[in-house]
Amino acid sequence: xxxxxxxxxxxxxxxxxxxxxxxxxxxxxxxxxxxxxxxxxxxxxxxxxxxxxxxxxxxxxxxxxxxxxxxxxxxxxxxxxxxxxxxxxxxxxxxxxxxxxxxxxxxxxxxxxxxxxxxxxxxxxxxxxxxxxxxxxxxxxxxxxxxxxxxxxxxxxxxxxxxxxxxxxxxxxxxxxxxxxxxxxxxxxxxxxxxxxxxxxxxxxxxxxxxxxxxxxxxxxxxxxxxxxxxxxxxxxxxxxxxxxxxxxxxxxxxxxxxxxxxxxxxxxxxxxxxxxxxxxxxxxxxxxxxxxxxxxxxxxxxxxxxxxxxxxxxxxxxxxxxxxxxxxxxxxxxxxxxxxxxxxxxxxxxxxxxxxxxxxxxxxxxxxxxxxx
Amino acid sequence: xxxxxxxxxxxxxxxxxxxxxxxxxxxxxxxxxxxxxxxxxxxxxxxxxxxxxxxxxxxxxxxxxxxxxxxxxxxxxxxxxxxxxxxxxxxxxxxxxxxxxxxxxxxxxxxxxxxxxxxxxxxxxxxxxxxxxxxxxxxxxxxxxxxxxxxxxxxxxxxxxxxxxxxxxxxxxxxxxxxxxxxxxxxxxxxxxxxxxxxxxxxxxxxxxxxxxxxxxxxxxxxxxxxxxxxxxxxxxxxxxxxxxxxxxxxxxxxxxxxxxxxxxxxxxxxxxxxxxxxxxxxxxxxxxxxxxxxxxxxxxxxxxxxxxxxxxxxxxxxxxxxxxxxxxxxxxxxxxxxxxxxxxxxxxxxxxxxxxxxxxxxxxxxxxxxxxx
Lengths: 374, 374
Known about the structure:
Number of strands of chain A: 20
Keywords (chains A, B): NADP, Oxidoreductase
Structural class of chain A: alpha/beta
CATH architecture of the largest domain in chain A: Alpha-Beta Complex
InterPro entries (chains A, B): ADH-like_C, GroES-like_sf, NAD(P)-bd_dom_sf
Largest sheet of chain A: 7 strands, mixed
Helix content of chain A: 25-40%
Organism (chains A, B): Sphingomonas guangdongensis
GO molecular function (chains A, B): NADPH binding; oxidoreductase activity, acting on NAD(P)H
Number of domains of chain A: 2
Strand content of chain A: 25-35%
CATH topology of the largest domain in chain A: Quinone Oxidoreductase, Chain A, domain 1
Oligomer: homodimer
Protein name (chains A, B): NADPH:quinone reductase
CATH superfamily of the largest domain in chain A: Medium-chain alcohol dehydrogenases, catalytic domain
Radius of gyration of chain A: 22 Å
C-alpha cells in the first residue's frame, strides 16, 4: 500500500493586528484515492496572480524575517486603510501557487500508469514539496519536455488563448492588450501573428516597444511617448479593434482605449449625442494598478467595462473548447508558449527579504520559478 | 390635394467660435406620403435627454438673448476644454425634442382615418409647430386623453419598462435605480410595486426619500444620510438586487452599489481574492454628473459596467416586446405613467433667458411642457 507523504507548503496568513505572515507549514498527504495523484513539485512559477494572494495589500517594504532556520517566516504590515479588503481571510492560513509541474510519485488504482510521468498541474497550493490533485487537472508532458517547460502551461497560455476565443465569441475581429510586453502579452502576440488576428500592443516604455517589434508585432503603442493618444487612435483605427483586455485596471488608460475605438467608429458617421452604435468592450483581467478605474465617458452608450477571469471563462466555454485550447498549449509548449525564467529559488528562499523584494517587483522580463528541491 | 404646411422648429447650432445658439427656424413640410402623417404639435416635454442636445456642454450661465421678436435667439458659450465633445456637430442646425403629442392634420392616403385624432409621437424634432412622421411612430390616444397626457408616453415609460425587461432577460430578480425620485423613477417604483419586483430607490435628499415612501416604496436610501453606505448594503442585501440602473454616471456611486451587491454575495462564502462569482451589472443610462465614472474595484471580477439606451434596447428586444410595452403604457397612461408638469411654455418662451434657466436646472419635481400654440 502507498504511504502518506509529508512535506512543506508555503502559506500566507492575515491576522487581526494588520500583519500578513508568510510561513512554511508541515503538511501530510494521505495516499491518493481513485482518480488522484501525488506529484513531487519540481517547478512552480510566481505569477502576478499569485502575488495577489501571497502579498495582498501588504506593504512590501515592511517585510521583516522571523521564525527559525527550520521554520522561517516573513511578516509584512498592511496599511490600515487597506485592511478592509482582506477582512474575509482573517486568520486563515492560505496555500499559494496556481500552477506547477513535477513527477508523479503515487497514483490511485485507476491512474497508476501516471507514476513516474512528468506533468503540468493547475489548482492552487503549488508552492509546496508535494501536491495531491485529480489526474484530470494534470497534463502529461511530451518526452524531452522538462518540469520547467511545463510549469506555466495553464495560466498565461490559456488566458492568451481565452482572449482570442472571447474576441471571436463576442463578434469582434481585432483586439487591444495592455502591459503587452508581459510573458502573457508576448504569447498573445505570437498567437495573433500565427492566426492572422490584428492586435494592438500597448506598452509602457520604448524598451518594451522594441521587444515586441523584434518579435514581429504589427501595432505597438507606448504610453510613455509624447504622441501616445494619436498613435493609439491610429493603431486602433488601422486594426479595427473593438475589444480590449487590460492588465492594469486603475487609471484612465482603459477609457482612452474605448475613446480611440469610438473615434474610429464615428469618423464618417452623422453626429449623434449618444455616440456611435458600434459596441466597444473593455475587459479588466489584472490589477497592476489597484487604484480606481477612471472612465471619462466620451464614447456614447454602446460600451461595456467588466472583469475577465480565466476560470469562469473556461467554465462558460465548456469542456470541448477547454480541451482544444489545452491541446494547442501542449503542442506549442516550447515555441508559442515558451516561458523563460530569470531566476530559480527554493521554498525557504521565497521568504528571504531580498529575494522577496526581487520577485515582488513584477518587473518586465523578470520571472521567478520555485523549485522546492533546492 | 393636401397643401404644404409651414411653421417654426427649435434648433440648436454649435459654431467654430465656441458658441451654441438656439433659434426658431421657419420650415415647410411637403404633404404626407403613404404611411405618413403631419401632426400639429400641442405638447412636448423637455426631458433631460433633450437638454443634452439642446444645451450640450455649453455654460448655462452664459446665455445671451438676441435676434428679433419674430426670430429670437439665445446664445451660450462652450468652455474651451469641452469643445472637443461637440466637434462632430459643428455648423449643423439640429432640431430638438424626442417626443410629443398633438392632432393629426394631414395623412397619407393609406392612413387617412388618423386625421383629427390625438396621438403621442416619438422621433425627434418635436419642439416645432408641426411634425411629419410615420404613422407607426404614433400611438392614438383613448377618448378623453389630452395631448398633455400623451406628450411623454415614450421615453420615460418605455425606459422604466425596459429596465424591468432587461433585468428579467439577464437573469436578475431585483434592481437598484438612482435619481429615483425623478418622474422615471416614480414610474419604475409604481411598476415594481404592481409587479412584485424588489426595487432599491437611491435618492439624494430626505424630501425625495419621503416622496417615494409616500408612494409606497419599500427600499429607499438617501445618499445625503450619514449612514448611507450601511443603509445601501442592507437594502441591497434585503432586496437581492444584482443589477442597477444609474442616471448619474459620474462619481463613485455606481461602484458603491456594486460593492454593496458583492458584500451581500460574499457574506457567508469562503474567501477568494477574485471575489464572489455572483455576477453584478451596472448600467449607466444618464449623465446628471458628466464627470468621470470612478470605479473602486473592490468587488472581484464578476461584474460589468455599461451604457443603456432606450432605442438600442427596443431594437434588440424586437417588435413583439416593444408592442407589449407600448400597449401597457397606453392602458396605464393616466395612472402608472401619469406625468405632471410644473409649467407650460411656448416655443419662443423657451429662448427667454429666465425661462431657459428654470428648465435647464433639471430640479426634481419641476417638469416643463412646450405647447407651440401659446
